[in-house]
Structures are given as C-alpha cells and as structure tokens.
Automatic annotation (TrEMBL):
It comes from the Bacteria. Gene3D superfamilies: predicted glycosyltransferase like domains. Residues 5-96 form the PilZ domain. This is PilZ domain-containing protein. Pfam families: PilZ (PF07238). InterPro entries: PilZ_domain (IPR009875).
Amino acid sequence: MFHEEKRDFRRMQIHTPAKLIPLDVVNGEEIQAMCTDLSATGLAIHLDEVLEIGSLYRVLIASTSTAITSFDATARVIRATKEQDGSLSAGLEIVNFN
C-alpha cells in the first residue's frame, strides 16, 4: 500500500552531533545532543537531559564540508519523550535561521 508523506518538507535522516544553547535561561549550560532527523522546519534529537516543551534553544551543527555553512538556528521544543529503552528524544520546530 502506498503511504503518502503529509509533511511539506522532506526529512533527512542524519546522525551528527548538535549543540543546544538555552535562550530563555540566564547562564544556562550548553547541552550536547545527537541530531537524527532534519528538515526545513524542524529537527529531532537524542540527548541525556529532559527538555521543557516550549523552551527556546540556539541549535548549532558543525558542517563537515568547507562548501557548506554550519547549521545555526533558533528552535522551540515541541515534543520531549522518554523512549522505551530509557533514552530521551525531542522534536524542535525551527523558529528562524541565525
């Protein structure tokens, strides 16, 4: 059976380190995460800390190519889940690119 993708933008399955810098907390510590999914409007990450839904982060992903600029965006947490295996994941919506 054919499954139609309902999203406006295609997702890229990736596995690359990401750095999250909290924007709504003064002197908040950077959070290290693993980005697993990226699209024009959002991203999915795996991490060791729980993120609060609605919180804002600056998300940085270093480029592995000199021809491509690094990813730098402000994103809002729209989903935070504890998986069955105990790991933590989150979905973030891109608010704007920096």
